[in-house]
UniProtKB/TrEMBL annotation:
BP GO annotations: demethylation; methylation; regulation of transcription by RNA polymerase II
KW Cell membrane (keyword) present: no
Native species: Motacilla alba
The name this protein goes by in its record: Lysine-specific demethylase
Cofactors required: Fe(2+)
Domain JmjC: 1-169
Amino acid sequence: MVYVGIPKGQADQEEEVLKTIQDGDSDELTIKRFTESREKPGALWHIYAAKDTEKIREFLKKVAEEQGQENPVDHDPIHDQSWYLDRSLRKRLHQEYGVQGWAIVQFLGDVVFIPAGAPHQASTRDMEWPDCLGSPLSVHNLYSCIKVAEDFVSPEHVKHCFWLTQEFRYLSHTHTNHEDKLQVKNVIYHAVKDAVGILRANESSLSRP
């Protein structure tokens, strides 16, 4: 979070931001960073464990049916980025499926790392799979802010990245997430190719007793 713009002389907005942070299930330490340390909050995140992805997907389909919406087979309630889990929906998700996430307020200067495959709520207030690595839900912006984001593949999470790529293949051809933006197979290929090249270049020294 490289910039947070807070308008001067708008006490009402400050109270609204505080209420949003509290309603977002933030912990006391986070609230004190805003009320006592006067740090600048830019965005509110809700991040869930990757293992709960299918439960979240099932829950969203259930809510959609309750609202009379269709669930086409070539669409996905997460990848469609059409949902935002507000407080009431988060409460239902916990009560009915036992799924509870982590509320994180990103202040000026904070960095948020999102594990591959982890559904999270992001700034468009939609349910999405944020980058191809995490699994975006949405981020709620508290003030006008500028965030710098970088996607990367860690060896520990390659399998999650691959699963996401496979899921994208089943979306409709006109879906914004249908394209394989991550190219995880190419990432794996070139990583192995580089590793083999280094081993061959040092083969003589490695064979010495």
